[in-house]
Amino acid sequence: MIHLPPVTLHGSLRDPLLGSISFLNEVMSRYPQAVSFAPGAPHPRLFEGIEPQRYVDRYLDHLIRDKGMSPDRARRLLFEYGPSRGLINDLVADALRRDHGIDAPADALVVTVGAQEALLLVLRALFGSPSDLLAVVSPCFSGITGAARLLDIDVVGVEETTQGVDLDALEAACVQAQAEGRRVRACYVAADFSNPGGVRMPLAVRQRLLRLARAKGFLVLEDNAYGFTAPPGHELPPLKALDRSGHVVHIGTFAKICFPGARVGYVVADQRTGSTGDRTLADELAAIKSMVTVNTSPLCQAVIGGMLLEHHGSLAEVSRAKATLYRHNLAHLVAALGRHLGDELPAVTWNRPEGGFFVTMNLPVIADRALLEVSAATYGVLWTPMSPFHLTDAGDRRLRLSCSYLEPREIETGVQRLATFLKKEIAS
């Protein structure tokens, strides 16, 4: 059998980042009785009542009644290769306009295989020169930094504050890049309850970020996976809804508000491209997608389309019950940490986000894989080390707790075990 030395393969394959998720899955499989705060996944109870055939039938009815297709043509549409751009673009565009104030035509959207494909497509399209830099908030969702690594895109980290991205540091990064003959091409942010930090960007900071993007000529890649968990009456407009100059590329997913198994996401990319401006970035993304996944499964799109139609075309209606569950879980987790840890370990601190799936914790020791093994094996509780989310060693003494996958009683038990672990292992 031929041997392929690691040095002959792409360097990203030796990056620890690419193995971080598989490591957590492997640890969870070895400790099935442990309470796991590791997966940032939707709650399994929310899958009850999902009947894919019912939603497919609802979408087929839409094609026949509203689009004027024959039953045979509508049914065949779901079994064929679909357009790379997508089938349910009009439904998604209408929902974004209705619920988020994002006014973009259907042909400015590309329906993708989850948000991860959207990130990969956008990076491939935008980064045409080795001198281009991707700025990311640190800590940052590993999906964007992993995609950048696969594409050999250089990344510059900008620290996250309690207000979101440090805009002074971002501006300084742009100036520094220019002095070196480079440029910050795009900046990735999650304005609402970021993964893993749980930080939310206030309206004034959102507006200042857009002004900075215009002044420095970079695009903002907005990931909006967790905005739906905002408390009622406290919603903030996405960056794309505030964008008046076309500097925001908006990326979303149905994984959290519908279910992840469908693998359906989307990207709003209405920026003009081409020498005559007769094409959009969405056109370019669709062309790239035709060489990557060809198209997003028409059947999966039909399921999501049917779910939207059954909820009057509203993303908010689809996600309302789910958002309530996640806010309840998050409040339970934060309260349990206060009850079981209190002020007993002053060196152990954590944040208290108002939405999203995650709480981050600071420790006085290294939160590495070895410590996680002790936590799982001896105390029966799992968490996620934060180092893969950071570009520097700033995350070495931090961990992430996810509450989305658990029942309140499991959260309570897990926090009790976590508190025992911290008091016995960390204090010593």
Give descriptors for this structure.
2 domains, Aspartate Aminotransferase, domain 1, 14 helices, alpha/beta, 428 residues, 42% helix, 4-stranded antiparallel sheet, Aspartate Aminotransferase, domain 2, 8-stranded mixed sheet
What's the shape? globular
Number of strands: 16
- Per the CATH scheme, the topology name of the largest domain is Aspartate Aminotransferase, domain 2
Q: List segments where confidence is low: pLDDT < 50 over at least 5 consecutive residues.
A: none
Helix content: 40-55%
Radius of gyration, CA atoms, in whole angstroms: 22 Å
CATH top level of the largest domain is: Alpha Beta
Account of the 3D structure:
With 428 residues, this protein is α/β, with parallel strands linked by helices. The protein has two domains: 6-46 and 318-426, Aspartate Aminotransferase, domain 1; 52-316, Aspartate Aminotransferase, domain 2, CATH 3.40.640. The chain has 14 helices and 16 strands. The chain has helices at 16-30, 52-65, 71-77, 89-100, 114-126, 142-150, 167-179, 203-216, 239-242, 281-289, 298-310, 315-340, 369-379, 408-426, and strands spanning 35-36, 109-112, 132-138, 154-161, 164-165, 183-189, 219-223, 248-253, 265-268, 272-273, 279-280, 349-350, 358-362, 381-382, 384-385, 398-402. Strands 2-9-8-7-6-3-4-5 form an eight-stranded mixed beta sheet, with helices on both faces. The chain has a four-stranded antiparallel beta sheet with strand order 12-13-16-15, with helices on one face. Helix 9 (239-242) links the parallel strand 7 and strand 8 (248-253). The longest helix has 26 residues, at 315-340. The N and C termini lie far apart (51 Å).
